[in-house]
Design goal:
The structure holds 2 protein chains of 2 kinds. By secondary structure, chain A is an alpha/beta fold. Helix content of chain A is 33%, strand content 18%. In chain A, helix 11 crosses helix 12. Chain B is mostly helical. Classes of the chains: A alpha/beta, B mainly alpha.
Chain lengths: 439, 107
C-alpha cells in the first residue's frame, strides 16, 4: 500500500526577503516584488527590471554556518541552502533522531541559472585580457580562448556550475544520506522534484525528503537570453505592472529568483514525533507535449493530461478543487493555452474555480517557480485566503475564467492544485489537501 | 608590480596568514608556522587548489599542479600529507619559488 505524505516544514528566500512571513505578507496583499535590476549594470538592456533579491535583503553569511563553503556556492545554491535550514527549523526535525539513510534530497534546479554573474565576469574579464586578439577574432578558436581564460580563474569556480551542487551542499550540511536527485526540466523542475520526492516516500524509500526548487536567472545571460526568445515583458517604464497574467495587454513575463523548500514526510513518521502538518500531498502527474520546443499545442493537451492524471492520482473529482495556482506566466500563449486546458479538464466547473497567478507579483522563478507556487497554495489553505492575480485590468476574451483579480479572496480551501509547464514541453501538476483530524 | 626582493620570510608569512584566513575562513591569529593546513586548519582538496591559486596571484609565481596533492613524492611512508603539511612548508616553498624567479630574472 502507498504511504501517505505530508508537508511538515516550509520556507522561502524570495524577492520580498528571507522567510515565509514576508512572502505571505507580499502575495496576500497583492504587492509586486518588481524592482530595477541592481545585481549588474543593466542600464542599456532591453529589459531592466526583475523580481530580484537584493543584497540588503539577503546576505548568505548571516545564515550559512560553514563560511568556507560559501565560496563554492553559486547564488541559487546559497538561496537553497538558507531556505533549507529555515524549513528544517520550521519542521522542528531533530536530525539526530532521523534515520539518515532514509533522509533524502530531491531538488528542482536550473541549468544556466547555475552560471551566475560572478563566474561570468571572471571568464569574460579573463578573455578580455587576451594579448593576442587574433584568438577572439576567430570564434573557432574557442579552445584557445578558454584555455587562456581558465588559466586566469580560480580552479574551484567551475564547481559552482554543476547543476547538482545545491542538492549536494544541502545533503552535506544536513547529513541527508538517502537518495539525492536534481531535476532540471526548465520551468517544470520544482514541481517535478516535489512530485518525485512524494513518490519516494509513497513507495517507502525515504521517511523525510528535502525538496522544492532554486534558481537565479537574473544575470546577463538569463535576461538577454530570455529577451532574445521574446518571452520577457519590456515594460520598463511601468515595471511593477509588467507581469499581468491573463490580462489582454500582457506582453511576457518578469524574471524572478529565489528558493522555496518543502520538507515532505511520511505521515506516521511525522505523527510519531508530533510534527507539524501543513497539508497532505495527494496527487501528482507529469506529461510531455512532445510537440515543439517553445510552443504549446494550441489545445493544451499536455497540460490537460497532467491535470487529469493528477486528479486521478489524488482520487478526487474535478469539482472538488477549491483553488488553482496557475502556471500563468503572462505570455500571450501560456495564459491562453492554460485557460483552454483548464476548461478541457474541468468543463463547466472551470468557470467556478478561483484561479490565480502569483507570478503577477513574484515573477517567474524558472526552475524554482513550482515550489514557490505550491507554498502559495499551502499558505492559502493555512490562512483560507487566495492570493490574487495583480495587474488584471482588461479582460481577454480568450482568458475568460475567474482569475481572482487584484484583491485577495477569503474562501474555504481544502483542495488546491498547482500547475507548472516548461520550455521543451514538460508539464506537471500537484494536488494538496488540508489535513484534518480524521486520518 | 612588487619587487621580489621585498619578500622577507616574515613578510611572506604575514601574507600567507591573510591568504589562508581568506581561503579557509579562519581567524588569522590562529595561524602559526607550525599549523597543519589540512589537519588543523581543515583544508579540503578544493581548498588546496584555492590556496595554490591565491598564492600564484599574490606572489606572481607558477605552482605546478600536483605540488601539494597527496600524490606528492616527498611524504614519508608512515605519514599522511595532513600530518606534515604545515604553513612553514608553504612559506619555504614560496621562498624557494621567489629565489628561482630572481635567479631566472638576473641570468
Amino acid at each position: 500500500m502507498r504511504k501517505r505524505v505530508v508537508v511538515s516544514g516550509i520556507d522561502i528566500v524570495s524577492p520580498y526577503g528571507v522567510g515565509l512571513d514576508k512572502y505571505w505578507k507580499g502575495i496576500s496583499a497583492g504587492k509586486s516584488a518588481a524592482k530595477l535590476i541592481t545585481g549588474f549594470d543593466a542600464n542599456n538592456y532591453p529589459v531592466r527590471f526583475a523580481a530580484e533579491i537584493t543584497s540588503d535583503q539577503f546576505n548568505p553569511r548571516e545564515y550559512i554556518e560553514n563560511k568556507k563553503s560559501i565560496k563554492i556556492m553559486n547564488r541559487a545554491t546559497q538561496f537553497a541552502v538558507v531556505a533549507t535550514q529555515l524549513a528544517l527549523q520550521d519542521a522542528d526535525i531533530k536530525k539526530e533522531r532521523l534515520d539518515t539513510k532514509r533522509f533524502g534530497v530531491t531538488l528542482g534546479v536550473g541549468g544556466l541559472g547555475a552560471v551566475d554573474t560572478e563566474l561570468f565576469s571572471e571568464i569574460s574579464y579573463s578573455s578580455s585580457s587576451l594579448e593576442t586578439q587574433d584568438y577572439i577574432k576567430n570564434k573557432n578558436n574557442i579552445g584557445q580562448i578558454f584555455r587562456h581564460a581558465m588559466d586566469q580563474i580560480n580552479p574551484i569556480l567551475p564547481l559552482k556550475i554543476l547543476p547538482n551542487m545545491s542538492a549536494s551542499h544541502i545533503a552535506i550540511i544536513n547529513q541527508a544520506r538517502g537518495s539525492n536527485y536534481s531535476i532540471s526540466t526548465a520551468c517544470t523542475s520544482a514541481t517535478q522534484a516535489i512530485g518525485e520526492a512524494f513518490r519516494q516516500i509513497q513507495r517507502g524509500e525515504n521517511d523525510v525528503v528535502i525538496t522544492g526548487g532554486t534558481d537565479s536567472m537574473i544575470n546577463p545571460m538569463g535576461v538577454l537570453g530570455f529577451n532574445l526568445i521574446g518571452v520577457l515583458s519590456r515594460n520598463n517604464k511601468n515595471y511593477s505592472k509588467a507581469s499581468r497574467p491573463f490580462d489582454r495587454k500582457r506582453d511576457g513575463f518578469m524574471l524572478g529568483e529565489g528558493a522555496a523548500i518543502l520538507i515532505l514526510e511520511e505521515l506516521r513518521h511525522c505523527l510519531n514525533r508530533s510534527g507539524k502538518i501543513y497539508c497532505e500531498i495527494t496527487g501528482y502527474a507529469a506529461s510531455s507535449d512532445a510537440y515543439r520546443i517553445t510552443d504549446e499545442p494550441p489545445d493544451g493537451y499536455g497540460c490537460a493530461q497532467a491535470m487529469s492524471l493528477a486528479l486521478k492520482d489524488a482520487d478526487v473529482s474535478s469539482d472538488q478543487i477549491d483553488y488553482i495556482n496557475a502556471h500563468g506566466t503572462s505570455t500571450v500563449m501560456n495564459d491562453k493555452t492554460e485557460t483552454l486546458a483548464i476548461k478541457k479538464v474541468f468543463g463547466d466547473f472551470a468557470f467556478k474555480i478561483p484561479i490565480s497567478s502569483t507570478k503577477s507579483m513574484i515573477g517567474h522563478w524558472a526552475a524554482a517557480a513550482g515550489a514557490a507556487e505550491l507554498i502559495a497554495c499551502i499558505l492559502a489553505i493555512k490562512h483560507q485566503v487566495i492570493p490574487p492575480t495583480i495587474n488584471y485590468e482588461e479582460p481577454d476574451p480568450e482568458c475568460d475564467l475567474d482569475y481572482v483579480p487584484n484583491q485577495p479572496r477569503s474562501k474555504n480551501i481544502a483542495l488546491s492544485l498547482s500547475n507548472s509547464f516548461g520550455f521543451g514541453g514538460q508539464n506537471a501538476c500537484l494536488i494538496i489537501k488540508s489535513f484534518g483530524e480524521g486520518i | 608590480m612588487s619587487n621580489t626582493n621585498e619578500w622577507t620570510e616574515k613578510k611572506i608569512f604575514e601574507k600567507m596568514k591573510i591568504i589562508l584566513s581568506e581561503a579557509l575562513e579562519v581567524d588569522p591569529e590562529i595561524i602559526k608556522p607550525e599549523s597543519l593546513i589540512i589537519n588543523d586548519l581543515e583544508a579540503e582538496s578544493i581548498d588546496v587548489l584555492d590556496i595554490s591559486f591565491r598564492l600564484e596571484k599574490a606572489f606572481k609565481i607558477t605552482i605546478p599542479e600536483q605540488s601539494f596533492s597527496s600524490n606528492s613524492q616527498n611524504i614519508p611512508d608512515e605519514k599522511t600529507l595532513g600530518e606534515i603539511f604545515t604553513v612553514q612548508i608553504l612559506v619555504d616553498f614560496i621562498k624557494q619559488k621567489l629565489a628561482e624567479a630572481r635567479a631566472h630574472a638576473s641570468s
